[in-house]
Amino acid sequence: MKEIRNRMKLEFESRSCNESFARTAVAAFAAQLDPTYEEVSDIRTAVSEAVTNCIVHAYRERVETVYITAEIRGERELVVRIRDKGCGIADIEQAMQPLFTTAPGEERAGLGFAVMQSLCDRVRVRSKPDAGTTVTLIKTLKLRQ
Q1: What is the rounded distance in angstroms from the CA atom of residue 67 to the CA atom of residue 111?
Q2: What is the value of pTM for the model shown?
Q3: How many whole angstroms separate alpha carbon 91 and alpha carbon 51?
Q4: What structural domains does the chain harbor?
Protein backbone atom coordinates (compact mmCIF):
# COMPACT_ATOMS: atom_id res chain seq x y z
CA MET A 1 0.00 0.00 0.00
CA LYS A 2 1.23 3.46 -0.86
CA GLU A 3 2.12 5.92 1.88
CA ILE A 4 -0.67 8.36 2.78
CA ARG A 5 0.79 11.84 2.31
CA ASN A 6 -2.27 13.86 3.25
CA ARG A 7 -5.88 13.26 4.27
CA MET A 8 -9.09 15.22 4.77
CA LYS A 9 -12.54 14.42 6.15
CA LEU A 10 -15.79 16.14 5.43
CA GLU A 11 -19.40 15.60 6.44
CA PHE A 12 -22.53 17.48 5.46
CA GLU A 13 -26.28 17.10 5.23
CA SER A 14 -27.75 15.17 2.31
CA ARG A 15 -29.25 18.20 0.62
CA SER A 16 -28.86 18.71 -3.12
CA CYS A 17 -27.45 22.19 -2.52
CA ASN A 18 -24.41 20.53 -0.88
CA GLU A 19 -23.47 18.54 -3.98
CA SER A 20 -21.48 21.44 -5.47
CA PHE A 21 -19.85 22.07 -2.08
CA ALA A 22 -18.65 18.46 -1.95
CA ARG A 23 -17.20 18.40 -5.45
CA THR A 24 -15.51 21.77 -4.97
CA ALA A 25 -14.01 20.74 -1.62
CA VAL A 26 -12.56 17.52 -3.04
CA ALA A 27 -11.24 19.35 -6.12
CA ALA A 28 -9.60 21.94 -3.86
CA PHE A 29 -7.97 19.16 -1.84
CA ALA A 30 -6.71 17.51 -5.05
CA ALA A 31 -5.21 20.83 -6.21
CA GLN A 32 -2.04 20.07 -4.24
CA LEU A 33 -1.28 17.43 -6.91
CA ASP A 34 -1.31 20.13 -9.62
CA PRO A 35 -3.97 18.34 -11.71
CA THR A 36 -4.79 19.24 -15.28
CA TYR A 37 -8.10 20.95 -16.03
CA GLU A 38 -9.43 17.63 -17.38
CA GLU A 39 -8.40 15.78 -14.20
CA VAL A 40 -10.13 18.37 -12.00
CA SER A 41 -13.24 18.08 -14.14
CA ASP A 42 -13.17 14.27 -13.88
CA ILE A 43 -12.78 14.38 -10.09
CA ARG A 44 -15.57 16.93 -9.67
CA THR A 45 -17.98 14.95 -11.87
CA ALA A 46 -17.23 11.58 -10.24
CA VAL A 47 -17.70 13.03 -6.74
CA SER A 48 -20.95 14.71 -7.86
CA GLU A 49 -22.31 11.40 -9.12
CA ALA A 50 -21.47 9.58 -5.89
CA VAL A 51 -22.89 12.33 -3.68
CA THR A 52 -26.06 12.49 -5.78
CA ASN A 53 -26.50 8.74 -5.27
CA CYS A 54 -26.40 9.31 -1.50
CA ILE A 55 -28.94 12.10 -1.66
CA VAL A 56 -31.35 10.59 -4.19
CA HIS A 57 -31.10 6.85 -3.55
CA ALA A 58 -29.62 6.18 -0.11
CA TYR A 59 -31.62 8.66 1.91
CA ARG A 60 -34.57 9.31 -0.40
CA GLU A 61 -36.71 11.96 1.30
CA ARG A 62 -34.72 12.07 4.57
CA VAL A 63 -31.98 14.54 5.43
CA GLU A 64 -29.06 12.61 6.89
CA THR A 65 -25.27 12.87 6.74
CA VAL A 66 -22.93 12.21 3.83
CA TYR A 67 -19.30 11.47 4.71
CA ILE A 68 -16.29 12.04 2.47
CA THR A 69 -12.65 11.25 3.06
CA ALA A 70 -9.91 11.98 0.55
CA GLU A 71 -6.32 10.86 0.66
CA ILE A 72 -3.20 11.56 -1.35
CA ARG A 73 -1.25 8.32 -1.61
CA GLY A 74 2.25 8.07 -2.95
CA GLU A 75 3.18 10.74 -5.44
CA ARG A 76 0.05 11.06 -7.60
CA GLU A 77 -2.84 8.88 -6.37
CA LEU A 78 -6.09 10.42 -5.12
CA VAL A 79 -8.45 8.14 -3.17
CA VAL A 80 -11.91 9.52 -2.37
CA ARG A 81 -14.50 7.66 -0.31
CA ILE A 82 -18.12 8.80 -0.28
CA ARG A 83 -20.17 7.07 2.41
CA ASP A 84 -23.76 7.10 3.58
CA LYS A 85 -25.73 5.25 6.22
CA GLY A 86 -28.78 4.89 4.03
CA CYS A 87 -30.78 2.02 2.58
CA GLY A 88 -27.80 0.23 1.04
CA ILE A 89 -27.67 -1.66 -2.23
CA ALA A 90 -29.05 -5.19 -2.37
CA ASP A 91 -27.38 -6.12 -5.69
CA ILE A 92 -24.24 -4.08 -6.41
CA GLU A 93 -23.59 -5.78 -9.76
CA GLN A 94 -27.08 -4.86 -10.97
CA ALA A 95 -26.82 -1.32 -9.60
CA MET A 96 -23.60 -0.77 -11.55
CA GLN A 97 -25.21 -1.68 -14.87
CA PRO A 98 -25.76 1.30 -17.17
CA LEU A 99 -29.37 2.53 -17.18
CA PHE A 100 -30.31 0.79 -13.92
CA THR A 101 -32.07 3.11 -11.48
CA THR A 102 -34.08 2.74 -8.31
CA ALA A 103 -35.94 5.97 -9.13
CA PRO A 104 -37.38 5.44 -12.63
CA GLY A 105 -40.20 7.94 -12.14
CA GLU A 106 -37.73 10.73 -11.37
CA GLU A 107 -36.14 11.02 -14.83
CA ARG A 108 -32.87 9.46 -13.65
CA ALA A 109 -30.64 8.05 -16.39
CA GLY A 110 -29.07 5.30 -14.27
CA LEU A 111 -25.58 6.20 -15.47
CA GLY A 112 -23.95 7.33 -12.21
CA PHE A 113 -21.66 4.34 -11.69
CA ALA A 114 -20.83 4.15 -15.41
CA VAL A 115 -19.80 7.82 -15.35
CA MET A 116 -17.67 7.28 -12.23
CA GLN A 117 -15.98 4.27 -13.86
CA SER A 118 -15.24 6.22 -17.05
CA LEU A 119 -13.58 9.06 -15.12
CA CYS A 120 -11.58 7.15 -12.51
CA ASP A 121 -8.96 4.43 -12.68
CA ARG A 122 -10.90 2.27 -10.23
CA VAL A 123 -14.30 2.41 -8.56
CA ARG A 124 -15.17 0.12 -5.66
CA VAL A 125 -18.59 -0.16 -4.09
CA ARG A 126 -19.30 -1.78 -0.75
CA SER A 127 -22.80 -1.86 0.59
CA LYS A 128 -25.03 -3.55 3.08
CA PRO A 129 -28.82 -3.32 2.90
CA ASP A 130 -30.19 -1.00 5.61
CA ALA A 131 -26.65 -0.06 6.68
CA GLY A 132 -25.29 2.13 3.90
CA THR A 133 -22.85 2.28 1.04
CA THR A 134 -19.25 3.33 0.51
CA VAL A 135 -18.05 4.28 -2.96
CA THR A 136 -14.28 4.50 -3.37
CA LEU A 137 -12.96 6.50 -6.32
CA ILE A 138 -9.27 6.08 -7.20
CA LYS A 139 -7.55 8.28 -9.74
CA THR A 140 -3.85 8.50 -10.50
CA LEU A 141 -2.99 11.95 -11.78
CA LYS A 142 -0.50 12.44 -14.58
CA LEU A 143 2.86 14.08 -14.04
CA ARG A 144 2.96 17.50 -15.65
CA GLN A 145 5.57 17.95 -18.36
Answers
A1: 22
A2: 0.91
A3: 19
A4: 4-140 (3.30.565.10)
